[in-house]
Design brief:
415 residues; mainly alpha; ABC transporter involved in vitamin B12 uptake, BtuC; 2 domains; two-stranded antiparallel ribbon; 14 helices; 2 strands
Length: 415
């Protein structure tokens, strides 16, 4: 039994890209099949005027309609007459995709460094508040119009990145110089972030014209603009420019990790820390640097949540940082895979709303369907991550620097 598990893990570790895609597609289909059975059976316990009669039972829910709304409803029903590509449902899907790219990259960078950053949510919260406050103060001394847009948006994004990066550096420093477990510290710092930002908001930055816990709105010209003529409407709270920036950042992080010395040191310290120490990599510095970069990406997510979605910072921040953990795992911690994983999450969230409006399926059941899809698709990559660590760490055979094995007690080489 153990040998079979080891062989399965090793096969997952060494699976090609095509094989991993095939496994993910098969897992998706399996989740749909299981979910369809669950929807159909659940419909037998619901009450409705019409449905599928089987004997004395009436099944109220149609699984085909549910999945039609889940996947195509998230795109605005492209197969139906009157479809417009710039519709609200697709804007909602792409909005969530954009934000989850930032949080997914945040978690992925930490994972690649051998660290588990569960604090992206806190870094996003801190970065979002910093963005709103800095933009509000900078707007007082900045001209309006196009010049204000060009100046304030980069300032706001940089403020979010700086605040998130500094907040991410805290658990990095505790890990590097104090030996503190980053899982524990990042979890606790999420709660600290909520407390600090709520206190600062009520003490100094509360909008005097609103009873809701929120900052004053940033100037309209400081929000992420739409692309003229081909962009979505302003009320959809989504901009193709933001998505383009997220994709460019995703490609940039992939290049940073794969083509630079910093990326090499980060990946080496995460995969083979002993080899990294032997080659002269400063493990402490790399731990702090990787957590700082991870936190900065989370802070950028908070900046775009403020400047694209709401135009202000709200105390009730959605769990984008926690969703980023699942996005990263689903992508296999590959920055280029984060985009596809984030899009899947965006489809599920937008499609869930479409199901709620077009069918009588309860929201709890819709949440189970989304969870099944995420679970089935993510589990192969999750076991692959475990297998990567097991195969690398579990191997007791010494190797040469070029990867060849050493046989015999006298150190003879196996060529």
């Amino acid at each position: 039994m153990r040998e079979s598990i080891e062989q399965l893990l090793e096969r997952l570790v060494h699976a090609s890209v095509a094989e991993r895609i095939a496994v993910s597609v098969a897992a998706l289909l399996a989740s749909i099949l299981v979910g369809a059975v669950l929807v159909f059976v659940s419909g037998g316990f619901a009450s409705c005027r019409s449905g599928l009669d089987v004997g004395t039972w009436t099944f109220c829910y149609n699984p085909m309609q549910v999945y039609y709304e889940l996947f195509l409803g998230a795109l605005g029903h492209p197969l139906e007459a009157g479809f417009h590509p710039l519709n609200f449902s697709l804007a909602t899907t792409l909005q969530q995709t954009t934000l989850l790219i930032f949080t997914g990259l945040s978690v992925a960078v930490a994972f690649r460094a051998g660290l588990f950053n569960i604090g992206t949510q806190g870094q996003l919260i801190v970065g979002g508040l910093a963005t709103a406050v800095v933009v509000l103060y900078a707007a007082a001394i900045t001209p309006g119009g196009f010049l204000g847009t060009v100046v304030l948006i980069p300032i706001g994004v940089l403020a979010g990145a700086a605040a998130g990066g500094l907040y991410g550096a805290i658990p990095g420093a505790l890990k590097a110089y104090g030996g503190a477990n980053e899982v524990i510290t990042t979890i606790m710092l999420n709660f600290v972030a909520i407390g600090i930002t709520s206190t600062l908001l009520s003490w100094q930055f509360q909008d005097p014209n609103s009873n809701n816990p929120q900052t004053a709105p940033v100037p309209e010209y400081a929000e992420i603009p739409n692309v003229p003529f081909v962009g979505f409407g302003g009320r959809m709270n989504f901009s193709l420019l933001a998505l383009g920036f997220a994709v460019a950042l995703m490609i940039g992080i992939a290049w940073l990790l794969a083509r630079t010395s910093f990326g090499y040191e980060l990946r080496t310290s995460g995969v083979q820390p002993d080899a990294a120490d032997y080659s002269g990599v400063d493990a402490r510095r790399m731990t702090v640097a990787s957590m700082t970069l991870s936190g900065a990406l989370g802070g950028i997510g908070g900046a775009f949540w403020v400047l694209m979605v709401h135009g202000r910072w709200l105390e009730n921040v959605p769990a984008l940082g926690f969703d980023g953990i699942a996005v990263s795992i689903l992508a296999g911690n590959n920055p280029l895979g984060v985009g596809a994983a984030a899009f899947l999450f965006g489809v599920l969230q937008s499609g869930s709303r479409s199901i709620s409006t077009a069918t009588d399926v309860p929201p709890e059941l819709v949440g189970i369907l989304s969870g099944l899809i995420i679970l089935f698709v993510a589990m192969p990559e999750f076991f692959r991550m475990i297998g990567t660590r097991y195969v690398d760490v579990g191997s007791s055979e010494p190797v040469r620097a070029d990867g060849g094995r050493i046989d015999g007690e006298n150190g003879g080489e196996n060529r």
